[in-house]
Amino acid sequence: MYIPTPQPQLWLRTITTDSQNELSRKVGIPERTLYNQIRKGRLSAENVLKIAEVYNIHPLRALIDNGYVDEKWDKDVETYLTAASPRQLADAMIKIIEDTQKRAGIIPKEFTDPIE
Question: How many other CB atoms are found less than 10 A from the CB of residue 68?
Fold first, then answer.
C-alpha cells in the first residue's frame, strides 16, 4: 500500500549524520540518483533497503518509515518488549544512548561505576 511519506531527508537525518555524498558512497547509490530522489521527496524501495542494511536499520521499519508498508504490519512495541530478555533490553538502551550521543556530537563516558 502506497503511503505518502514525509521528507526522506528527515528520515536520513534520524539515522546518520553523513553527508549525501558520503551516504551515497557507503551505500553504493549514485550521488545524482540519491540527490534526485531526495529532491522529489521519495526514495525508491530498493534504495531504502540498501540504506537500511548499511546503517543497521530494520528493513521493515525503514519501509514503514518511508511509506512503502502500512504500520499495521509491524508488531506493536509491547510485543517486542515483552519478548526481549533483560540483557537484550539493556543492550538496546545502551545502543540508543550511544547512537543519540554520536549524532549530537557528544563524546560518551565509559560506564565504569557500579550501580547501587
Answer: 19
Q: Where are the domains of the chain?
A: 8-73, 75-108
To the nearest 10°, the Cα dihedral for 69, 70, 72, 77? 70
Instruction: Give pLDDT, residue 3.
Output: 44
Distance, CA of 36 to CA of 65 (rounded, Å): 19
Q: How far apart are CA 42 and CA 30, in angstroms?
A: 15
- Mean pLDDT of the region 55-81: 83
Write down the pLDDT at residue 39.
92
Q: Which residues are within 8 A (CB) of 74 and not within 5 positions of it... i.e. 6 or more apart?
A: 60, 61, 64
Mean pLDDT of the chain: 84
Q: Do residues 5 and 63 lie in contact, with contact meaning Cβ atoms separated by under 8 Å?
A: no
